[in-house]
Amino acid sequence: MYGAETTTSDSERTAFRRAEKQYKLYKSQKSRKKNGIKPTDLSDVVDFRAVLDSFERGEGLPPGIVEFDCPGFDLPVFCFKDRPGFFFIPSALTIEEQCHWIQESLTTFPQPPNRTNLTAIYGPILDLFNAVRSQKVLIETENTDKLVDHDLKNSENILHSRKFLFYEGANMCGKQSCKSVAASVLLRKLRWSTLGLQFDWSKRNYDVSLPHNKIPDALSLLAKKMAVPALSSGEFHPEAAIVNYFGPSDMLGGHLDDMEVDWTKPIVSVSLGCKAIFLLGGKSRDDSPIAMFLRSGDIVLMAAEARECFHGVPRIFTDNDHADISAVLSQFSSEDDCFYADYIRSSRININIRQVN
């Protein structure tokens, strides 16, 4: 799912791949820049925060960008003239809303029966974020009864974790052969979770036979509210969501979201945490993509023709000068919130809500 660099020459790369390479994070020990990061030319990246500021001052919009007039929708919406079906809603969420959905993404969304990229290796993992707070370790053992205290025996953890369960410290491992991994390491390995109808990444379809809960009501209401500019008719019914978790060097390669039945219904994409570059291409990888910044609180809608456009995230920014998360971090300033701050300081979360049927 996350892109990797290849040895293909520039002349053999598609226009989309060349753009990915242009904005991808590169590090060099020879670089004298902060943290050894090679400088990147960002002059062609569309900045919708600047577009919004200019719009609110009554100044003109950049060439190729138009305001979308949506009666009854109280937030500014912008579109590209040559990418019909794509809508950008800058600063759609308040700081408080952003912090709420960051917390939900780390505590509630990875909870079983929701599947994550860790499920195939460790089975369903309960309360991962709380385990991080308690500095617990996930232990593999053949005889779980000897390692589980009374409280754990009466919890769902013992029912679902099979050979893996959280334990306070790995000192018991000395008595037997077992594998262990710190909860904090697992959290950093978290790359996706699926809400509502569960997406099968191997078959690239939704497996309705898998146990699942419906999308949380609050997230469903948010998606319905934000989907309005992209709806040509009818209503938006959220049935599934994919939550992507990006670390400092992660990227999401160019792809299409084409597994849903009705492409007139939008994908509602919520950005949280560190700023990223988003590439919106055309119907072919040979079409040159438009690069734009995605900041915490921005929302993107992709419907109709835009659903046929390749898109991806080649870069997130975690350095203090470019991450643009000072307002979010200020809300996570209490001692109880320090683990949220530590995580989001170098991470991005993207929630994509979809109507499947």
Describe how the helices and strands are arranged.
Elements: H1 15-23, H2 48-56, E1 65-67, E2 78-80, E3 86-89, H3 95-107, H4 119-122, H5 128-133, E4 137-140, H6 150-153, H7 156-160, E5 164-167, E6 180-182, H8 183-189, E7 192-196, E8 198-200, E9 205-207, H9 217-227, E10 240-246, E11 252-255, E12 267-273, E13 276-280, E14 290-294, E15 299-302, E16 311-316, H10 326-331, H11 338-344, E17 348-354
Antiparallel strand pairs: 1-2, 3-15, 4-5, 4-6, 7-10, 8-9, 10-17, 11-16, 12-15, 12-17, 13-14, 13-16
Structure, described:
Helix content is 23%, strand content 22%. The chain is an alpha+beta fold and 357 residues long. A six-stranded antiparallel β-sheet has the order 3-15-12-17-10-7, covered by helices on one side. Strands 11-16-13-14 form a four-stranded antiparallel β-sheet, with helices on one face. The two termini are 24 Å apart. The model is unreliable at 1-7 and 144-161 (pLDDT under 50).
Strands, total number: 17
Mean pLDDT: 87
Please work out how many helical segments DSSP would assign: 11
Segments where pLDDT lies below 50 for 5+ residues? Answer: 1-7, 144-161
Quick one: biggest sheet?
A: 6 strands, antiparallel
Radius of gyration: 21 Å
Tell me the fraction of residues in β-strands, as a range: 15-25%
Structural class: alpha+beta
Cα distance spanning the termini: 24 Å
Write out the strand line-up for the largest beta sheet, numbering strands in chain order. Answer: 3-15-12-17-10-7
Query: How much helicity do the residues have?
Result: 10-25%
Shape type: globular
Order of helices and strands: HHEEEHHHEHHEEHEEEHEEEEEEEHHE
